[in-house]
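hiii so um. not sure if this is the right channel but i have a protein structure encoded as tokens and i wanna go backwards to a sequence. like what aa goes where. can anyone help
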């Protein structure tokens, strides 16, 4: 909610605040930014309008989140994109969005089918990232990889069968698309085959892999670290 008001990318037509919510610093800023759109209501009214348990006593009636075109994302100078191939858990998707945005990613690619949609649960897990991170809905990740290649953007698949370590990636300062697979099976075969590079995260314990959102955090911020180092 607060990031929606801070970003100013979407217009809040009305902001509803439960009368029982404590006025901490966050709520005070929401009240200040909402201005004349703010409406104090009974908590039951918020529950009724929200139809979910993720509202925390405040919700907004706002314009829809608009998807962007993949070509616009690929046209960004020194693009850093994150493509999500088959992630179906909304909390994982939201966490990936949060990691991508905090690492400075310039956009996210989300398949229209066989993937979690952007829901209130996703928005809550993303902690405001959906208000800043441009999202393109695409027909499929393999076709998007080919499109990225034609635009001069390298595709790097994160896969436990990768032939090099994430920490040896030397393409981070180039236009790049980090490709993440599903929670269970990782990258689909066709997606894996079309990636320019496959990298793995070295495991030092007994388990063979990380949860996709944890892996995304590590990979996004390693790419960000390398991009920052090359820019100095």
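sure thing!! here u go:
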């Amino acid at each position: 909610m607060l990031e929606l008001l801070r970003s100013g990318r979407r217009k809040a037509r009305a902001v509803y605040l439960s009368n029982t919510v404590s006025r901490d610093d966050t709520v005070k800023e929401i009240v200040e930014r909402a201005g004349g759109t703010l409406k104090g209501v009974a908590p039951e009214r918020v529950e009724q309008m929200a139809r979910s348990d993720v509202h925390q006593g405040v919700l907004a009636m706002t314009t829809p989140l608009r998807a962007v075109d993949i070509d616009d994302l690929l046209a960004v100078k020194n693009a850093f994109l994150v493509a999500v191939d088959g992630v179906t858990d909304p909390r994982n998707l939201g966490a990936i969005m949060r990691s991508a945005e905090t690492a400075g990613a310039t956009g996210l690619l989300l398949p229209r089918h066989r993937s979690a949609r952007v829901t209130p649960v996703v928005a809550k897990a993303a902690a405001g990232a959906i208000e800043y991170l441009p999202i393109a809905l695409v027909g499929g990740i393999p076709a998007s990889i080919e499109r990225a290649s034609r635009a001069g953007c390298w595709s790097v698949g994160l896969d436990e069968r990768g032939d090099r370590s994430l920490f040896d990636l030397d393409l981070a300062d180039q236009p790049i698309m980090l490709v993440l697979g599903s929670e269970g099976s990782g990258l689909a075969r066709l997606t894996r085959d079309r990636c320019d590079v496959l990298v793995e995260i070295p495991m030092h314990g007994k388990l063979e892999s990380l949860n996709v959102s944890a892996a995304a955090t590590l990979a996004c911020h390693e790419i960000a670290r390398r991009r920052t180092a090359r820019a100095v």
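oh and The radius of gyration is 19 Å.
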